[in-house]
Amino acid sequence: MLRAVIGTVSVLAGFVVLEQSVDASTGLAGSCKAAQAYALLQPGQPLPVRATPTPEGTVIGALATRNMTAEVSTSSVTVIGSQSGWARIALGGADYTAVDGKPQFGWVPADSLAVSSRLEGAVTMFSRPGLLGQEIGQIKNEDLQFRMLGCRGEWLQVINAEKGNVWIDRWCAKEEGCAG
Known about the structure:
This protein is an all-beta fold.
């Protein structure tokens, strides 16, 4: 049973997606480096930033839209963690407006975020994590959108209409001492 459904991301060729990753099978947290991301917003509808990773969490601010004429606008954020389908973001950027005071971190639904980057080189995809996983192909020099299902150790599980449900090794490389 998957307990970690984290959101839609573009695959990056580095080993960074989230500083705080979630094991797709156990729900246990590990740590990965922070990444820049974009909140995908409807024009005129700011995205509430919450104090806790729940829909009932206190609203502590909002991410504003940049382009009011586009169908979907973006707001730049730094993703520093994840939990139960929510992304922990660093606050204080130009796109963020605080409700009261200046908290350093807040939570938004992870599926409202995308990471934008181009894949450089090749990344090998596997049927499952670990030594029993078989290589099933490579992603080479492409931009692809994936729904991120979670991490198991250093392995990232993703799904996409073209590639299906696959695992990528060392994407969620652990980094000791991450703030989270």
